[in-house]
Design a protein that fits this description.
ConA-like_dom_sf; Concanavalin A-like lectin/glucanase superfamily protein; mainly beta; ten-stranded antiparallel sheet; signal; carbohydrate binding; Jelly Rolls; 18 strands; lectin
Length: 312
Amino acid sequence: MRKALPGLCLVLALTAPAQAQPPSEVFPGIAAAVVHHYDFEHPLAGDPEKEDDIGRADSRTPISLVNGGAAMRVADGAFPGSKTSLQLKQVRPNSKSNDDWKAGVHSSSGVASMKAFSKARGMSIMTWVKITGEAPARNSNSSGTGDFYGAIGFAGVLSGDSDGHAARALLETENHNGAMRLIALGRRVDGSGKQFWVSNADWKTLMPQGKWVFLAGTFDFDNGTIGLYVDGKPVEGSYAVKGDPWKVIGPPEPDTTSAANPRGIKIGGSHPQNNREVNACNCRLDGLLFLDRALTADEVRAQYEWVIKGRR
């Protein structure tokens, strides 16, 4: 049997080093809370029209890239180290159809891999967004070509009784008191009252056309509070609903979401099952995270700084 030459192993080790793993996109202090993570650089094995979930192993939830498939991954990373993002868009603005580019997952019986958001005391959503076209989009369900949707859907977790629109937690813009505002929307109990944190500023001031912006929404269902952030900073605003719409005052404690698995995730509008078009988003998304607790303001800022500094 031929023997290896002396020192060959050392030479091989020097000329072909093991590939180091790239640093995580997630700030270590919040990593344990990340349930679902989509970077739009991981097509599902054998199905490039789906994006794999690189979050928690026991909660793996691939999402469908609806209507555009693999072409929705575009070479435009939102931050250092990111190569691609997800393009969302309205395909036929003046036609009632089901061809908008959006993404997500939907199951009328609930998505079992999203059980972390059943009976949850809190949750958070974080993502990068770039507006790339007409916003808000034209209302393709209207016969009037000059009618526009009253909202733009970015990303949300559906409620346990959702038809593909109603959300347990959502980042969006919405027409509020005659002006479009940036909003974080939460619903604690399925079919019950919603609460909104509404920005004081016009949404286009917070999200200029063609600029990547880091959005975050935190939802503390036990304490009845919502946080909304842009580029790691709290957004000045107010609650839209007076009183106690989540019904958290008084026993029993703690206050949690309904004991039902969400019916899915919606990204870039509503109805990820593709049976209707609503609130389309002419935009790109990158680095989308769903977490199983309400992050603090310091943690949101830390995630933003971690990513923009190239993941130290």
